[in-house]
UniProtKB/TrEMBL annotation:
Residues 136-163 are annotated as: Disordered. This is Transcription factor & chromatin remodeling ARID family. It holds the Pfam family ARID. It comes from Helianthus annuus. InterPro entries: ARID_dom, ARID_dom_sf. The lineage of its organism: Eukaryota, Viridiplantae, Streptophyta, Embryophyta, Tracheophyta. One of its GO terms (molecular function) is DNA binding.
Amino acid sequence: MILQAMKFNEFQDCKALLDMLEDNEYVMKYKYEIEVKFEEMIDWFLRIKMGITTRPIPVYMGNNKKVNPLELYMVVKKEGGRRTVTSNNLWEMVSKDMGRDYEDGDYMRILYAMYLDIIIYYYKFKSVQGDVRGDQTQGYAGNKDNAAGEGRRTMSTDCIPED
């Protein structure tokens, strides 16, 4: 199985796992394996990629109750994403959907911000970046004379973070 062999050595590995989460049927079928890999992904991204060593894995709330980050991610995604959940004040509902008390909504919001927000932001950035590169490459390949005539031979990537 691809999940068991999955290792996190670069952000593309994280992107591959996050892409898998688009298939809800797949997530339900391999829930346990995905939960394990999701925590490994968070650990790799925060510790190795970002150099953040102060956030312990596994994730716990302030009252020493373990939180499943995959479940948190999936519930927030189902409700429209962090921005929608925050602007509609739905964190208490997210907490309740996860089998917690309404009062734990603030914990869920904080944990999402601490562990998932930057990964999801980076994932969306890299997805859009890949789409833009693909569009620009196709545009130039289809009309090399026009691209060369306008002096555009390469795309500047100076402002894009490296993996």
